[in-house]
Structure formats: structure tokens, C-alpha cells
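Good morning,

Attaching, inline, the C-alpha cells for the sequence recovery test we're adding to the shared suite. The designed sequence is right after.
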């Protein structure tokens, strides 16, 4: 693969507010790059700068080596898809998908619309009014419309955030399939970690306007590198191993041990007493919020039980394998102490 999009020291300011802070990033042809981060991290501002909807305060945005900073939005050849779909209510499904195809002949438009609707699984919906679509169907139509003109780059800004959890999970997998089938290069903005890890081939985690971690989904998950990235991904608690290195426990790594008198196991499998603060039933499991030393953490009970709330206020034994936890850098607040 060759480099398609390159961001060189890009910053975006809103008055005195720095939304994007000297970002360097690139995506190869065929990549689906997720910009993942909490609300206010700068990911949507960066997407808007790539699209041409915001002027960078500094830096350069290049497509295949050529700067597009001064290129108008409509001449960049980039497609846009937003969370509300922005479909035209007065047009049919086919009419929406055909909107960006006015440069084609009538026969070519009909063929391209049919191809796109087949791709997104809505081949029988061409004449349907968009006001009769479900939320998931509407987003499929929006995706088909964005892909129909064969954009050089597809920009998706929180495209599934307005949908319920089960539909988001399903459509995230479908979007990945559709983008790969169409050989699209995409930038996918989301605050939902499961969504990003389902869709993306590369992930850039943004925190406070900066790229805090970049890599494949496996690389980012297995090695968060920093305390702030690990905390954002749900790691915790943060504990020191026998050599003094700081390690982050992945979600679900802590488990309740029934035998309160159990001795610590050999090697790096460690057990501790902890106090139960709260319990949260999940599908097929129960999360137990515990106080472990100076930190709060989530342990897994390993089962669902109507009597789990009886654990609140009790002392329990928790176990974890510290050797399997990634080593991370010290949090900024702890440095120099």
C-alpha cells in the first residue's frame, strides 16, 4: 500500500482554544483509520479540517503527496457521512443515492445506484421513501450515497452514535465489510471503543487534541503505552510488579476468589483482599466494583446471581495475573516525585 493521506503538524484553533494540537498522521490506500477519543478530544475538529470545513491554524494536509489545504471542499474528492445521515426527505432511497451522480448518464446512474444498494443490503428499497426507513436502514442509505461517487477518501463522523447498542454493533461490522468490499480509504471518528476496534485497520487515540497512541487494533489494545491511554480504554487498576514496573490490568482481569483464606499463588498470580462497593449485573456475568488499596476497580464474579447485592460492604478475595498485564509509563502527575 502507498500513502494516501498525510497530516503534517496540523493544528486547529477556535479563538484561543486549541482543538487539535500539532498532529502528524498518515493513512495508506485501503486503510480504515479510526480517530478514537473522549468527547472534546479534537477528533471531529481534525476530521473537519481534512474535509476542508475548518481551516488549519498551522500545518499541511496532503493527498498522495499534494497539499489540499487551499483546495475547496467540493474539489477535494472526499465523501462525508455524519451521524444523522442528512438524507433528503423529498427524495426516494434511489434518489438520495443518485444525488452525487449528476455527471453520469441516466443509464450509468441507474446502474451505479443499483450496485450501491446491493452493496448495503437494500436492493429492494430503491423506490421507498426515506421517511419510511428505520434508523439502521437510513444510515445504510447515507453510506451508499457517500460511496456512490467513488470518493478518494470517505470521512465518517460518529455515523452510528444515534443508534441503539445492538444495532451499532451489527452495523459496525457491516460498515467494515462494505468499506473493504468497495476498496475505500476511510477516516472514521467515534468515541465508542468497540465500534473503533470492529471497523478500523488502524486506530489513532486522541486525547486533549494530540495523538496519544497509534497502531493496529491489536497493537493499541495489547500495549496502551501510557497511563492516560490505558485509563481511556478501561484498564485498571494500575499496580506494580515485583520489579517495580507499573502495569495496567485489562478489564475483566480481576476475578473474585471464593476462598477468603486462599494463599497467594506462585509466580505473578497475586491475590488480595478487597472491599465490595457495588455490584452491576451484566449479560451472563456480574461486575463487582471493589476498593483495592487506594484504587477502585471492577472484578468479575463469573456468574449472575439475584443475591449478588449481598456482597456490598463485604471483604472478598480477588486474584489476577500481573505478568500478562502491559507495562505502561508513569502518569504525568506521578513524575518527578
Amino acid at each position: 500500500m502507498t500513502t494516501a493521506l498525510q497530516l503534517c503538524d496540523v493544528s486547529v484553533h477556535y479563538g484561543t482554544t486549541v482543538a487539535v494540537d500539532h498532529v502528524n498522521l498518515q493513512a495508506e490506500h485501503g486503510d480504515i483509520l479510526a480517530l478514537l477519543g473522549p468527547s472534546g478530544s479534537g477528533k471531529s475538529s481534525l476530521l473537519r479540517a481534512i474535509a476542508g470545513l475548518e481551516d488549519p491554524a498551522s500545518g499541511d494536509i496532503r493527498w498522495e503527496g499534494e497539499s489540499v489545504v487551499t483546495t475547496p471542499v467540493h474539489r477535494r474528492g472526499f465523501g462525508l457521512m455524519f451521524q444523522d445521515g442528512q438524507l433528503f426527505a423529498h427524495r426516494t432511497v434511489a434518489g438520495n443515492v443518485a444525488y452525487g451522480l449528476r455527471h453520469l448518464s441516466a443509464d450509468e446512474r441507474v446502474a451505479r445506484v443499483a450496485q450501491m444498494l446491493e452493496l448495503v443490503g437494500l436492493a429492494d428499497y430503491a423506490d421507498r421513501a426515506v421517511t419510511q426507513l428505520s434508523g439502521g436502514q437510513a444510515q445504510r442509505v447515507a453510506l451508499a450515497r457517500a460511496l456512490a461517487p467513488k470518493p478518494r477518501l470517505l470521512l465518517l463522523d460518529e455515523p452510528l452514535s444515534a443508534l441503539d447498542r445492538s444495532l451499532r454493533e451489527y452495523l459496525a461490522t457491516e460498515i467494515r465489510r462494505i468499506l473493504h468490499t468497495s476498496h475505500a480509504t476511510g477516516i472514521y471518528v467515534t468515541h465508542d471503543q468497540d465500534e473503533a476496534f470492529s471497523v478500523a485497520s488502524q486506530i489513532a487515540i486522541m486525547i486533549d487534541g494530540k495523538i496519544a497512541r497509534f497502531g493496529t487494533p491489536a497493537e493499541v489494545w495489547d500495549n496502551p503505552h501510557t497511563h492516560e491511554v490505558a485509563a481511556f480504554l478501561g484498564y485498571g487498576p494500575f499496580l506494580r510488579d515485583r520489579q517495580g514496573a507499573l502495569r495496567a490490568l485489562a478489564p475483566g482481569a480481576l476475578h473474585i476468589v471464593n476462598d477468603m483464606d486462599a494463599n497467594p499463588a506462585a509466580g505473578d498470580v497475586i491475590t488480595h483482599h478487597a472491599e465490595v462497593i457495588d455490584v452491576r449485573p451484566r449479560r451472563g456475568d456480574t461486575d463487582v466494583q471493589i476498593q483495592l488499596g487506594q484504587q477502585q476497580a471492577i472484578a468479575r464474579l463469573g456468574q449472575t446471581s439475584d443475591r449478588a447485592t449481598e456482597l456490598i460492604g463485604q471483604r472478598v478475595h480477588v486474584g489476577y495475573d500481573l505478568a500478562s498485564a502491559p507495562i505502561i509509563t508513569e502518569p504525568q502527575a506521578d513524575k518527578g516525585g
